Amino acid sequence: MSTLLYIHGFLSSPSSFKSQQFKQWLTQHRPDIHFECPLLPPYPAQAHQILDNIITQSAERPIYLVGSSMGGFWSTYFAEKYNLPAVLVNPACAPLTLMPSYVGIELKNFHTEDTYLLNDSHLKELAEFVIEEPQRIPNYWVLLQTGDETLDYRLAEKKYRKCKVTTEDGGDHSFAGFERYFENIIRFFEDIHSAR
């Protein structure tokens, strides 16, 4: 059985709409694929440890990464580290330019009501996981919508320009109509796996 590791965005959770959509679709159409979506804190070292543990403990079976927003940042890091296929949905490409504005402000998870406080040490942690330019080009499929109100899709187009990129006009940061891609995402993953 393969594992689909869904990595949610900043201050999101496993209860996010896209995560729940994908989980339900897999349950109905591909019950042979195990779905995993851990709750990640905004603290980089902690988030890294949680994800790294899941990946290393699942190393005996294929692991597929789907990362949304900040989850796309993490998916890129682990795709490079462990040579894993990854689908990035409106990914965060330069979170270090955004994170300073969150330092010292009480943050609340959109779904769980948990609160967090970031400090400068967390920015240093985050810097350790930055991948400036992906090297494992065939591993990636990047899904972008130009209507993303949170992140500039052009940054992702530039960073992943050598990779497979699909850019849709309009939409929003949540990537409207994400469910249209589920079947093709799984096919993308399985084609990569079978080619190895």
UniProtKB/TrEMBL annotation:
InterPro entries: AB_hydrolase_fold, UPF0227/Esterase_YqiA. This is Esterase YqiA. It comes from Marinibactrum halimedae. The lineage of its organism: Bacteria, Pseudomonadati, Pseudomonadota, Gammaproteobacteria, Cellvibrionales.
